[in-house]
């Protein structure tokens, strides 16, 4: 049976036991594919890794204009299957991670959804709004180098383990209000083109915003930093509002650039 040909080194880190449907190779595990080549030289890709603005030659149920919606539905279905596998796992055994780097997807709505184990989506590209308000992430989360082309709503979400948004690109509003990070949160090199809201967010582990770029208002009012907070070399083009923020340990702002107002009053 054909399988998606898209390779990524992240896949190779996981075996069948440690990664949902992974097999220890660097090849994508998705088997629902289309041929984007020719009959003589087939090139099989799943809906998440299909070449942009192209339809497969061997099926008519993936028209270009519907692929965004098809990706959204397929992602929800795979995540549901993964949750069932995690729930059925042996007690005491490490649950398998959900690994799908560099996926392309349309708008997603996972408000109050539960992600029970590691979620590894580095390099993903979301072309529509992402709704994750109240979602609970029980495992590690890797969303490094992810592109969010529209708004992201993570209001009141909970991240229980280490979370990485390293070099992520937020092209719309980024809403992290009242989010709880129970372990280190890495936003180093992240770019926030529009407003970034971290009002009343709680960082239980180190918070790394080194080299992050804020193109508009950055709102950290009432945020709580229980461990080290690093904003070294960060660039705030608009207002940086830290009124009422509490730093329990060291807070580093070496080399930071404030292009607008910076407010730290309590």
Summarize the structure.
8% of the residues lie in helices and 26% in strands. By secondary structure, the chain is mostly beta strands.
Overall tally of structural domains = 2
Low-confidence stretches: none
The proportion of strand residues reads: 25-35%
Q: Give the N-to-C terminal Cα separation.
A: 62 Å
Could you walk me through the main structural features you see in this protein, from its secondary elements to its overall organization?
The chain is mainly beta and about 270 residues long. The chain folds into two domains: about 1-95, no CATH class; about 105-260, no CATH class. Helix content is about 10%, strand content about 25%. The strands form five sheets. An eight-stranded parallel sheet has the order 3-7-11-15-19-23-27-31, with no helix packed on it. It is globular and about 65 Å long.
Secondary-structure topology with pairs:
Blueprint: E1 33-35, E2 44-46, H1 67-87, E3 98-99, E4 104-105, E5 108-109, E6 114-115, E7 119-120, E8 125-126, E9 130-131, E10 136-137, E11 141-142, E12 147-148, E13 152-153, E14 158-159, E15 163-164, E16 169-170, E17 174-175, E18 180-181, E19 185-186, E20 191-192, E21 196-197, E22 202-203, E23 207-208, E24 213-214, E25 218-219, E26 224-225, E27 229-230, E28 235-236, E29 240-241, E30 246-247, E31 251-252, E32 257-258, E33 262-263
Parallel strand pairs: 3-7, 4-8, 5-9, 6-10, 7-11, 8-12, 9-13, 10-14, 11-15, 12-16, 13-17, 14-18, 15-19, 16-20, 17-21, 18-22, 19-23, 20-24, 21-25, 22-26, 23-27, 24-28, 25-29, 26-30, 27-31, 28-32, 29-33
Antiparallel strand pairs: 1-2
């Amino acid at each position: 049976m054909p399988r998606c040909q898209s390779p990524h080194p992240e896949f190779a880190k996981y075996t069948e036991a440690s990664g949902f449907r992974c097999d220890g190779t660097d090849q994508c595990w998705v088997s629902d594919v289309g041929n984007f080549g020719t009959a003589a030289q087939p090139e099989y890709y799943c809906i998440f890794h299909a070449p942009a603005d192209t339809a497969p030659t061997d099926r008519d149920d993936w028209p270009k204009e519907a692929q965004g919606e098809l990706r959204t539905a397929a992602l929800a279905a795979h995540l549901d299957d993964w949750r069932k596998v995690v729930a059925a796992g042996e007690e005491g055994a490490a649950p398998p991670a959900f690994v799908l780097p560099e996926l392309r997807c349309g708008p997603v709505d996972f408000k109050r959804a539960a992600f029970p184990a590691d979620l590894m989506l580095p390099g993903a590209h979301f072309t529509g709004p992402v709704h994750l308000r109240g979602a609970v992430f029980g495992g590690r989360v890797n969303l490094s180098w992810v592109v969010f082309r529209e708004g992201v709503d993570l209001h009141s979400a909970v991240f229980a383990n280490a979370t990485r948004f390293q070099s992520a690109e937020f092209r719309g509003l980024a809403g992290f209000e009242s989010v709880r990070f129970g372990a280190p949160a890495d936003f180093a090199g992240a770019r926030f083109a529009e407003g970034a809201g971290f009002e009343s967010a709680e960082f239980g582990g180190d918070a790394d915003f080194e080299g992050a770029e804020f193109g508009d208002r950055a709102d950290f009012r009432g945020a709580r930093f229980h461990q080290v907070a690093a904003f070294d070399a960060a660039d705030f083009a608009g207002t940086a509002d830290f009124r009422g923020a509490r730093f329990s340990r060291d807070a580093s702002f070496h080399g930071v650039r404030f292009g607008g107002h910076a407010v730290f009053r309590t």
